Fold this sequence. Notes:
single chain; alpha+beta; disordered N terminus
Amino acid sequence: MNIQHFFQLTQKSMSRSLISPSSPLVTNHGVPESLMDAVMDGCRGFFYLCEDDKLEFKGDHVMDPIRCGTSFNASIEKEFYWRDFLKVFVHPQFHFPNKPSGFSNLALEYCKRIREVAKDVLEGISESLGMESNYINKALNLDSNFQIFIANLYPPCPQPELAMGLPPHSDHGLLTFLTQNGIGGLQIQHNGKWVSVNPIPNSFLINTGDHLEILSNGKFKSVVHRAIVNRNSTRISLAIANGPSLDTVVTPAAELVDSHNIPPAYIGIKYKEYIQLQQSNNLKDKSVLDRIRSI
């Protein structure tokens, strides 16, 4: 596994340098390219189902295990974003639409492989923070971690300068693994500017999430990013979000607070409550994380 701009994994060890201002790019991760392509084809197949078939999976609540639709939170937003989505809770219990045929089995294997890569990355992050490699796994009960499969479709937009695929935001959770169908549109905020990101084929772009920022007491920052649209091509992106178990109360690690006489920068909150708070409000920058800052 090769993690560019962030840290390097060699066999089972990881260097302890934190050198990236943005998201790491992971190659040689062990997830077959054929599986990655097949899952992306499955996402395309789902979005191209007839509306009646997709209506079966619409969902009504942010914690429904399968939801599809448009925008981010249609109940509170005054404007809709130029995208369709499919969100599915895939761990610790696996849920998935039964259409198109075979998509569910592909997603099951894909998400399992992602969890394995995420475990390796989080072990390296634990070590980079000066703790044992299994610290994050134990502290956040990752054997029962909450994992979400999120597919997005951004159709061609006749006036892309007036529309947005997704507004600037950070992700809840620890690590989000991102892939796309070769069409650019992801931008990351760096030094007050938006930088377009076009990952190389067969790689994962990993966004650090709010709960890694909380646990590390701000040493690792969650990545603010957005999706822009274009007038010519359909973009499909796939995000696999990996977080603690739903009942875990995430706080700054004691080892990063007490031993250095540094106060905790965030107030503890149960992960499920954090998700509900984010999903029931407008999506904007780090607005939810800002609510629980203590300093």
